Amino acid sequence: MNVFTTDLALVITRLALLLGLGWFLARQGWVVAASRQSLMRLVIWVFFPAMIFDRVCGNPLINSGTTALLYLGVGFGMIVTGILVGRLVAQALALPGDVCRRTFAFASGTNNFGYLGIPITAALFDRDVVGVLLVHNVGVEAAVWTVGISVLSGKPGLAGLRNFLQPMPVALFLALALNFAGLGAAAPTQFVQGCCHAVGECAIPVGTILTGIYLHEALRGFRLFAEPRLTLGIAAVRWLIMPASLLLVAGAVITDPSLRKVMLVQAAMPAGMFTFLIVEMFGGQVQVSLRYAVVTMLACPVVTTTWLYVGARCLGIAA
Question: How many Å apart are CA 54 and CA 198, to the nearest integer?
Fold first, then answer.
């Protein structure tokens, strides 16, 4: 598969421009704190649930409960594996303090599965594969808000299960229920899906601009070339260990062709951009997660395209 396409270059360029726009809006003071909270609520409660329903409902690649569970399970396992790898690397590098190590582990496991993963998947493959990615991503969300938060906060427990009642999981479960009941092609469902399609198109651009807005405040005082040991750990996990591990599992274990394509894209992703917001919420070290996001995003044009190329050849995947 030729990953060095105009579409992929446009995806990465568009992402950078939208982040820059968000940063500029915040720098000019055109978006105040109250507006940020309202935008966040709109993205999480409206735009992303609408996009999930649109991409999943009627998707022929998600036609059984067993298939959906496979996609969810792989997403969940990917995050848990990344957290475990991050914890081991943090210990091997003797990163200072338990909070620092827990934050590093959480950031290691949380890749950019949505904001960058979705448009890149759409640029390389058809919309049904994007639907598989969205189901996979709910498994990712489940792992982030249960195992991830438990590790980050240092407080084991299942309190994060309440997040399954949030709009995104509810939209997914509703879409899957309609699929399994054979109602995905019914006229009322198609009407709702059309409305969701129009609304869901706002999810990625608005969410990315919002990330740029938050980055403006988070980057104050940030020094790119500080903390060499931490940066080494970031490179080891995100640029080597996790991509190689995901591609190995995809090639040796996974037979579903659509899921293999999803895993190819996930293997090439940088760290999640929103991770530092979650870290701040649960008492981790914001600068650790911020360094993870910034370093991997800056290297994204080279690292992501390289792993997409290598992975596609190893897995025998065509666009």
Answer: 9
Does residue 103 belong to any structural domain of this protein? yes
* Domain-located, residue 73: yes
- Record the tokens describing residue 292, joined without a space: 């993870």
Which one-letter DSSP state was computed for residue 162?
Answer: G
Question: Is residue 1 in a domain?
Answer: no
13 located within any domain: yes
Query: CA–CA separation, 118 vs 138, rounded Å?
Result: 13
Distance between CA 116 and CA 121 in Å, rounded?
A: 9
DSSP conformation letters of 55-89: HHTT-TT--SHHHHHHHHHHHHHHHHHHHHHHHHH
- Record the tokens describing residue 229, joined without a space: 């040991």
| Cβ 179 vs Cβ 59: under 8 Å | yes
Nearest to 308 by CA among 256, 265, 271, 270: 265
Give mean pLDDT in consecutive 10-residue pieces for the chain, a chain of 319 residues: 70 84 89 78 86 81 76 92 94 90 92 83 83 86 81 68 69 83 83 91 85 77 76 91 95 91 93 79 83 86 90 83
Q: Please give the C-alpha separations between residue 23 and each of 11, 57, 182, 209, in angstroms, as whole numbers.
A: 18, 35, 45, 8
Cα(122)–Cα(129) distance, rounded to whole angstroms? 8
Q: What pTM, to 2 d.p., does this model score?
A: 0.81
